[in-house]
Amino acid sequence: MAKGHRSQIKRERNAQKDTRPSAKLSYARVSVQKACFVLDAIRGKDVETALAILEYNPRYASGLVKKLIESAAANAENNNGMNRDNLYVAECYANKGPTMKRIHPRAQGRAYRIEKRTSHITVVLDERE
C-alpha cells in the first residue's frame, strides 16, 4: 500500500511527469506498421526538416504526423515558452489501437473477415542546447 497522504502521493507522481511538449493522435485509421514507416523517417530530425520530409512523403500517415508535429511545436511555444528553431523530434511512436472487424461475403456462403486496424500515434519534441 502507498505511504503518505493522497495529495503527497499526487505531488510525487507529478514531479516525475515528463514536461517535454508532445501531441497524441488516438484512434488514427492507419495500421501501426504503416505509421512506423513515416515515424522512422523523422525520428531525431529538427522540426523544420521533419515537416519538409513529411510534406513530400506520399504515404497517408505523413499527413497525420505532419499535423501532430505542428501541434506539438505550437504546444512548445505557447505552453513551455520554447524557441521553435531549437526543437527536434525526441520521440515518436505508434501503439496499437482497437481493430474494427468487418465481414466480406465470399463464394458459396462463406465470409472472410476484414480487420481495419487503428493506432495511437505520439510525437514528443525537445529543445537542443
UniProtKB/TrEMBL annotation:
The domain of life is Bacteria
Q: Where is this region: Disordered?
A: 1-24
Q: Which residues form the signal peptide?
A: none
- Note whether RNA-binding occurs among the keywords: yes
Q: Which example biological process does GO assign this protein?
A: translation
Task: List, as start-end ranges, the regions of compositional bias called Basic and acidic residues.
Answer: 9-21
Record's Gene Ontology CC terms? Answer: cytosolic large ribosomal subunit
Any coiled-coil ranges, and where? none
GO MF entries:
rRNA binding; structural constituent of ribosome
Keywords (alphabetical) are: Ribonucleoprotein, Ribosomal protein, RNA-binding, rRNA-binding
Q: Which Gene3D superfamilies match?
A: Ribosomal protein L22/L17
Enumerate the NCBIfam families for this protein: rplV_bact
| Assembly behavior | Part of the 50S ribosomal subunit.
Its job: The globular domain of the protein is located near the polypeptide exit tunnel on the outside of the subunit, while an extended beta-hairpin is found that lines the wall of the exit tunnel in the center of the 70S ribosome. This protein binds specifically to 23S rRNA; its binding is stimulated by other ribosomal proteins, e.g. L4, L17, and L20. It is important during the early stages of 50S assembly. It makes multiple contacts with different domains of the 23S rRNA in the assembled 50S subunit and ribosome.
Q: Which family does it belong to?
A: Belongs to the universal ribosomal protein uL22 family.
What is the protein's given name?
Large ribosomal subunit protein uL22
Q: Which gene encodes it?
A: rplV
